[in-house]
Amino acid sequence: MYDVSEFEPELQFIKNEAIREFTRVCLENAPPYFWEVPASSGGKYHPVWASGDGGLVRHSRVTAFVTKELAQAFKLDPDETDAAISAAILHDVTKHGLPGGKYSVKDHDYIAACFIHRQAKQFTAVGNPEVPMLREICGAVAYHFGNFSVEVVGRKLKTFPEEYSKIEQIIHTADMVASRKGINFDFLQMQETLIA
Predict the structure, then answer these.
(1) Could you report the per-residue pLDDT of 44-97, keeping only the tens digit for each?
(2) CB 3.0–4.6 Å: which of 83, 121, 131, 171 could bond 136 by disulfide?
(3) In Å, what is the CA distance from 156 to each residue of 41, 92, 161, 181?
(4) For the chain, which domains are there?
(5) Burial class (CB in 10 A: 0-12, 13-18, 19+), 101
(6) pLDDT given at position 146
(7) What is the pTM of this model?
């Protein structure tokens, strides 16, 4: 198992204990590559700090930070904020598909939402409470591509932003901000090594 504590600052943004613990369980069950790969297979779509070993983790952490800030601007209520942060942490958890290949897969947004939904079933099966805001978390993950969403059998595409909930709009926007080259985030500088 990989070190989920790397996400501890972002997990602490989530005030609802059930959402926080469920997000932690999803991270614990994330495919091993999630902890190792860069945010962009070819390095073309993300800043340098999101490249190299662990780049996808750094990208996910930054997306959660930006989401927390946008949630305040959008005046989300506490449960909506917690759902948005959970979705931000988990939005790329299956970026290379399942079980995982060398490159990002084009429908990883949909695959991640299905992964999260399966984790919720297992989470409740062992006596945990129902996951609050699960539908919102899965929806935000499934539609985090915004206008760049791809057609997947069984999933209706929505028009961005008109048909998107506030949480879905925030996750898409936070992901785009976290992917922009030339933007740095000071809290990432505290890590010993940004790029392997």
Answers:
(1) 778 888 888 999 999 999 999 999 999 999 999 999 999 999 999 999 999 999
(2) 83
(3) 27, 20, 15, 31
(4) 4-189 (1.10.3210)
(5) exposed
(6) 87
(7) 0.91
